[in-house]
Design a protein that fits this description.
single chain; about 160 residues; alpha/beta; Rossmann fold; 4 strands
Length: about 160
């Protein structure tokens, strides 16, 4: 069976997108679909390439049982659009950047925003917690847990309907 490939994208790939990667991996691992996915993250900018996730974000994620192990990398439109089935931006700015990098309509159809999959929280973006305090990091994880559950439901429902 072909794996469903999911890429989460934020600006620097040190807070939101590596957290989304870890949360989605955790949710998928505890489901019946644990072998069916390839999950990664990237940033629209190269500010933090080669760096681990922000220590504050790691600390908050660990308290919830999520381990942020990815190393920051920049989104590569020449390979990532071809490789991934779902490319998910964290906010409107990330979506704008991704849409501008899209090469064609096929690329654009792979794009969605994380909060498109929300189930309970009433947010239209996953806010950047970088310049805020603890509450911002906790909010990001709340939104990601909710939206990642919705994402898994959507993907598995679509697979069953295909």
């Amino acid at each position: 069976m072909t794996k469903t490939k999911v890429l989460f994208v934020c600006m620097g790939n040190i807070c939101r997108s590596p957290s989304a990667e870890a949360v989605f991996k955790g949710i998928v691992k505890s489901s019946e679909f644990s072998q069916d996915f390839e999950i990664d993250s990237a940033g629209t900018t190269g500010y933090h390439v080669g760096q681990p996730a922000d220590r504050r974000m790691q600390s908050h994620a660990i308290k919830r049982g999520f381990n942020l192990t990815s190393i920051s990398r920049k989104f590569n439109p020449e390979t990532d659009f071809d490789h991934f089935d779902y490319i998910i931006g964290m906010d409107d700015e990330n979506m704008y950047s991704l849409k501008n990098m899209a090469r064609n309509e096929t690329d654009l159809k792979k794009l969605s925003k994380m909060t498109d999959y929300k189930k309970e929280w009433d947010y239209n973006e996953v806010p950047d917690p970088y310049y805020g305090g603890d509450a911002g990091f906790e909010l990001v994880l709340d939104l990601l847990e909710d939206s990642c559950e919705g994402l898994l439901e959507k993907i598995t429902r679509n697979d069953k309907e295909s």
